[in-house]
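RETRY 2/3 - previous attempt timed out on the joint model. Re-submitting the same 360-residue input unchanged.
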Amino acid sequence: MEKKIAVLKGDGIGPEVTDQALKALKAIEQVYGHKFSYTEGLIGAVAIDATGNPFPDATFEVCQSADAILFGAIGDPKYDNDPKATVRPEQGLLKMRKSLGLFANIRPINTYKILANASPLRADLVEGVDFIVFRELIGGIYFGEKGRRDNGNVAFDNCTYSKEEVIRVSTLAFEAARNRRKKLTLVDKANVLETSRLWREVVKDLSAKYSDVEVDCMFVDNAAMKIIQNPRYFDVIVTENMFGDIITDEASVITGSLGMLPSASIGSKTGLYEPIHGSYPEAAGKNIANPNGSILSAAMLLEMSFGLREEAAAIRNAVENCLNAGIVTMDIKKESKYTTSQIGDKVAEFIKAKSKTLQA
Ligand code: IPM
Ligand code: MN
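RETRY 2/3 succeeded.
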């Protein structure tokens, strides 16, 4: 198979973790006889520094002509503490999502046995947790009209959803539920918000087509508790943009390592894949960050954009074997000496060896 991959490494640890995912992809090319080409584009603070624009047109073009996008991270502390900064790295991310029509952000939350004790929750609560969140990504309060009035003394952010926007992401969530444990939870705030009442209406209508899927609706405050108290309750969650942002961060920490989790953002055309951790500026350039979130994002890319299930499984298998062999970065084991690039090398080595065991 021949495919074009756009590579947007971005800020902070983005470049070093993405480099490890590239090693895994190159190992896959070699073992399975595929040919991927990689074209880089600037995004985030590095793009602002180089061009003044956090998502330059040249990067948009690279993304548009690619078959899939591998993305690192965005954000730089030099912009965080300046509320008056008019250009921010995050604008690049939002602009990219919107202009590429990436309406669904998909975050699988699953746990590894070996990390059960790293979770802030008791191991017995965390064991076997396996759910997936579908977050609407280009609507709601993030993209509604915003501004100031009354001489700047009053600020507003409008939250708007159309039926169409709810239908398209909810349909993906229903399809996913159908192929899993057949349970879909809509997370909303329908006791307060009109947009949430629209979400309920749409999801209820859609459920007629998916009679094999059990649907429940849960207020977001309740869902926030339930993710801590009984995370095994969930199979597939669908929710709007802002609630999804918050509960996916919450859900990610119960797995024991933020550094392990991949995500996909998909729309009508090119999908984008990124680790869910941010740019982690304190670790940038130190070769200590956990690259598995990025490596597993490459696996999602192969499976979801290219339909390469076996290849995706080979990457996941390699990551899991490294974990089991104690080949981990220090976020997982404090005394571990493995660096970011060594993990990438080991994962690639394991993919190439195609063997079932690997020595540390
Ligand atoms: C995320 C991030 C972004 C978001 C920020 C950086 C704009 O937190 O991808 O979850 O809020 O969507
Ligand atoms: Mn977030």
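The two ends are 33 Å apart (CA to CA). Closing ticket.
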